[in-house]
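Task: sequence design from structure.
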């Protein structure tokens, strides 16, 4: 949001499309989209931040997109995940595991040959 505002003020770039924000919580999407009654007793803790998010969603500056938890690549950065989920996420991000990379002693200098680093990944 800050970058959008700054670039508009500097007349560098005008963002025409909404910024996609992937969420794995449908209640959050419904609340921010205005599909929830904010006068509900459960919503008393809601503060100015929700109203800010609601405003930018309604003005089409961002678009909230539901993405199932198992497809969220950054989950391992924000919460504890199982080893299979961590391995799959790292693989999808292009990070090699230690087994795929191999031992440091057995590798040539990474500066002399880039072809030695092009190994087949076991992503599934």
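Answer:
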């Amino acid at each position: 949001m800050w970058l959008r505002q700054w670039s508009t003020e500097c007349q560098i770039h005008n963002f025409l499309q909404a910024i996609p924000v992937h969420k794995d919580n449908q209640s959050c999407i419904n609340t921010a989209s205005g599909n929830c009654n904010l006068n509900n007793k459960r919503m008393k803790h809601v503060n100015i931040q929700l109203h800010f998010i609601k405003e930018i969603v309604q003005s089409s500056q961002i678009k909230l997109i539901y993405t199932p938890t198992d497809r969220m690549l950054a989950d391992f950065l924000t919460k504890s995940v199982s080893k299979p989920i961590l391995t799959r996420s790292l693989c999808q991000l292009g990070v090699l595991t230690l087994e795929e990379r191999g031992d440091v002693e057995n590798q040539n200098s990474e500066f002399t040959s880039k072809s030695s680093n092009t190994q087949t990944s076991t992503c599934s």
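Residues 69-102 form one domain.
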